[in-house]
Amino acid sequence: MGGIESLLLNLLFLIVFLLFVPLFIEKSLKTLPNKLKKSIIIFSFCIAIVSNISFPITVVEGFVFDLRWIPLVIGTLYGGIPVSILLFSTTVGYRFMIGGTGVIPNLIVCLILVTLSILLIKTFKNSTKKKRISMVTSLSLLAGFLQFLIFYKVYHLPISVMELLGYSVLLVFSAFIVIYTLEIIREENMINEKLFEAEKMKIVSQLASSISHEVRNPLTVVRGFLQMMEQTEMSRYEQKKFLKISMDEIDRANLIIGDYLSFAKPTEQNMEILNLKKEFQRAIEMIKPLANMNSVEVHTKVDSYYINGKSQLLQQCLLNIFKNCIEAMPNNGNLFIETIKNNNIVYIVIEDNGQGMTKEQLDRIGEPYFTTKGNGGTGLGMMTVMRIVDMLDGRIHISSELNKGTRFEISIPVVEKEKHQSA
Ligand code: ADP
Ligand code: MG
Asked: How far is the CA of 385 from the centre of ligand 1 (A)?
């Protein structure tokens, strides 16, 4: 293959495995666990190195050049020492498998490059975008130069200054393309995250004020009636009417507070180890009267798994879901509650065979004030559930079919009880 074609192919590998794969995972496979994401990205870097070594550019007979240094440097600087060791082993190991004159020079260049990169990790982390870009390009250039030097001095391969120059330019150019794009993507991601955080905070504070408003309204009404009853003579009938409205208003306030209750984010200090079995028992005990009223049978299969959290929050979360499920089965039905552990995750499955939701309703669930229950609902329950699941470091998945039922699946990392007790 010609020089230019090989170079373009090498660059394509870098673009796909160093830029596209991480971007795709970040944007389109958001829900994957972070550890898995990281592993895929590291693996992708390894593939980049292997494919670069597999399709080298022959400069002169016996001297090949490729872009393998770029993933090695970038991987080390962003990923840290463990990643660096893995990439180093891949480079050296794969090069060793191929064999030939290049094995030893490759090993030497790799050693120098990785050592230098590791020493620079800290500086790299605290540097500006510009500095980071120049660090990566310089290191890549240095690698190419070292490789050339060894071939020239030790193996006496005839390489002209022009070839060296051309080679250096290509290496710097490729490194620059990759690191520049990578930095822009990272910057963009960071800005997006900050915006998202700010937006969330705005919603929460707006919500807090609108909720206190919602609670104050019924209280004002009740107070007005009480004052009127105190100051004016009225018939027994009228009194009863006003008392009825007052009670309705108080119920309304109660409903709003009940769905919303505590929103304080748990801090590291007030997190506790929760036994899911005990927590569920408590929550189910509380929901029993409502279940009985609707002739809903509760089936539980809950085991003693431990999670990190706050009892009050978990209770609120479970109660809001239970309440919705029971409310979706007004005449009778079954509520299934189950916990399943898989690896280090516990899956909490709550399922009803109630009225279910349409696709549109399912899409809107968790939106503040979205309710299909008119005045009987607040539209705050599921929003609170989602916030709490987030605080517990968990994820929630809801599926529903109209007139068939709804299934809530919450996954939360488990903690080992023994470890905690000895700590
Ligand atoms: P509220 O219960 O006060 O209406 P929520 O935020 O708890 O507010 O729920 C929002 C909406 O989501 C409900 O009005 C209902 O339409 C729908 N929903 C929630 N859970 C279920 C469920 N288990 N079955 C059917 N619909 C549900
Ligand atoms: Mg509700």
From this structure: 11
